[in-house]
Amino acid sequence: MLKRELGKGIDFQTFLNLADLYVANCDWAEAREQLDYADSFCGGSMLKRAKVTARRGLICYRSEEHAEAVKNFRQALLVKPGNLTLRSNLGNALLQLKKFKDAKDEFARVLKLAPKNIDALLGAAEVSIELAGDSDPDQFQIGVDYLSDAIEYGWNRPSGSKCLSISETAKIYYVRGYARTKSYEADASLGVRATLTPALNDFRQCKQLDPKDSKAPVAIEKITKFKRRRMRESWLEVWGPLVISIFGAIVFLFVQLDFFFPETLLRDKGPIASATEYGSLTFGSLLFMIAGLCLPQVLKLKLVGIELDKASVYHVSLPSTLGISSFSLIETGRSGSLPKF
To answer: 335 with 257, same domain?
Structure first.
């Protein structure tokens, strides 16, 4: 139907529409060919050329040519600096190149103008999780906040920039559960009271929304086993240090009374322990008391991590030119879902 429109004076837009359809079908060669045709109709129009360049950036991104995608997105932004979709796409391409600071800046620019932009919220969350993995665990909670906002606004169409599907929301729940799990591990290693219940609830939500998801059930099983093991070991953290400290204190007190005040123990012949034995018992009891006080911290340092499959959620959007809603790509790991119209 589109090809029958060629020659009617709207060839530039028709070639763009054809390119969009080929992108939706992941036919990169045909999509590039249609963009070449569209480029020949740009003339001196910078706006038309920017539309072509933006789509070239998307094709490069989907073809995992991320450096070239960044180049095209930036070139298009020179003409359309206020286009938030382009800026979000640029942030995602920078994210794939592991240029986290630059990606963070791009998403921040979008969220400053549109704080409820779903694509930017997901991209900013991805950056935060990556930064948290680079020895900045506080970023996990920041990522959780971004994902929570994305879920809230994505389910409330009038407030968010787009409406999330059920499968998309399920993937976001998984990523939030992952971030919360890693945040728990970081807090527990520092002795901060934390809980895995919110993370477990996120994985359960993911499983409920998308029963075909293979990662959520594994995560639920691992966390459940981990919580049971921690409950069995909790007595060591609570009662073990207390028993050791009390035992050391009793020995310390008895030795002092026996050596300095034997009459208090109803002894008339002086202390039982010699000076050498007194020193050994005193020093040993103090060591037990110190060990009891330090044992909780030692146990927390030995906290075994929860190995979960890492997942990524990022959107790369293309403005609609077909008179219907634009499509978005959501990827988890290296596999991606088909774009939706």
So the answer is: no
Show Cβ contacts of residue 108 under 8 Å, excluding neighbours closer than 6 positions: 124
Please, are residues 318 and 58 in contact by the beta-carbon 8 Å criterion? yes
107 and 68 fall within a common domain:
no
Pair 117, 181 in one domain:
yes
79-88, 240-249, 270-279, 296-305: the lowest-pLDDT one: 296-305
Q: What is the average pLDDT value for the chain, to the nearest integer? A: 79
Torsion on CA atoms 156, 162, 164, 165, rounded to nearest 10: 110
Q: Is 263 exposed, middle or buried (0-12, 13-18, 19+ CB in 10 A)?
A: exposed
Residues 65 and 107 in one domain: no
Between the alpha carbon of residue 47 and those of residues 69, 229, 244, the distances in Å are: 18, 61, 76
DSSP 332: E
pTM of the prediction? 0.71
**Cα–Cα–Cα angle for 150, 127, 141, rounded to 5 degrees:** 65
Q: With respect to residue 117, please indicate whether it lies within any of the assigned structural domains.
A: yes
Note the pLDDT tens digit of each residue in 273-332.
Answer: 566 766 777 777 777 777 766 765 555 544 455 667 666 665 555 444 333 223 333 333
How many domains does one find in the chain? Answer: 3
Structural domain including 268 reads: 233-301
